[in-house]
Amino acid sequence: MKKRPGGLTQRVVWAAWLAAACGQNYSDKPAAEALAERNLTPLEEMPSASSPEAGESPVQTLDGGVTIRVPESWQRVPPSSSMRIAEYAAPFPEGGEGATLAVFRGNMGTVDANVRRWFGQFSQPDGSPARGRSWTVETEGGLRATMVDVSGTFRDGMGMGDAPVREGYRMLGAILGAGGTTWYLKFTGPAGAVSAHEEGFDSLVRSMRN
User: Residue 164: what pLDDT?
Assistant: First the structure.
């Protein structure tokens, strides 16, 4: 069945026209005018859902009722792991490999334990521990988030086993409680790609609301 604007079908259009044209209320006036006399709105003139203004980041709701405001250039993609609630791809403006935001949810230990685990996924070229930092911010929704920034040689898979090793990587992370559980956001990729979206990641975290 052919769709009409706004997702309405031809059958609904004809039903509205017949309601105005049939029976003792028949009018030989143009359809729009006849409908207006009966306080009906022509379907073609019904307002459609508004789209985000240019430059405005779209708000998305994650499984669990938490909302985030996602940078326009990021694309939501199917999660590469069943553990991930959501996943986003952030392209590198200069081309090449981009960065990935992985979103997790649940009870995965204390904040400090997770920060140490994330740091443990990175090392310096000589094999020494990676240098990173952590700090706290408050989101627009009044949530307290622990932020992480670490870079170096990255070993995926929580740093265990024969996980791939990637040199020159960086990770921006956030851990915060919302919706009755704990959320973990890991934004990883080549250092240049992550740096290009650093402000976007910070803005996304600060936009989180219950």
Answer: 83
Instruction: Provide the β-strand partners of residue 86.
Output: 103
Q: How distant, in Å, are the alpha carbons of 1, 16, 26, 44 from that of 10?
A: 8, 10, 21, 11
| Contact present, 31 and 40 (Cβ < 8 Å) | no
CB neighbours of 86 closer than 8 A, spacing ≥ 6? 62, 63, 76, 79, 103
Q: What pLDDT, on the 0 to 100 scale, is given for residue 91?
A: 95
Low-confidence ranges of the chain (pLDDT < 70): 1-57, 157-162
Instruction: Report the distance separating Cα 42 and Cα 35, nearest Å.
Output: 7
Q: Collapsing DSSP states into helix, strand and coil, what is residue 91?
A: coil
Beta-carbon-side half-sphere exposure of residue 36 (alpha carbons within 13 Å): 6
Sequence-separated (6 or more) residues with CB below 8 Å from residue 20? 27, 31, 34, 35, 38, 40
Residue entry with tokens 């990637």: 166
- Asked if residue 98 lies in contact with residue 120, where contact means CB atoms within 8 angstroms, the answer is no
**Which contiguous run of DSSP H or E holds residue 88?**
strand 86-90
CA distance 1 to 47: 22
Contact 77, 152 (CB under 8 A): no
DSSP-derived secondary structure letter, 131: P
Enter the tokens of residue 145.
């988030």
Percentage above 70 pLDDT, the chain: 70
- Distinct helix (H) and strand (E) counts, the chain: 5, 10
pTM for this prediction: 0.71
Q: Can you tell me whether residue 87 is helix, strand or coil? A: strand
Question: How many residues belong to the chain?
Answer: 210
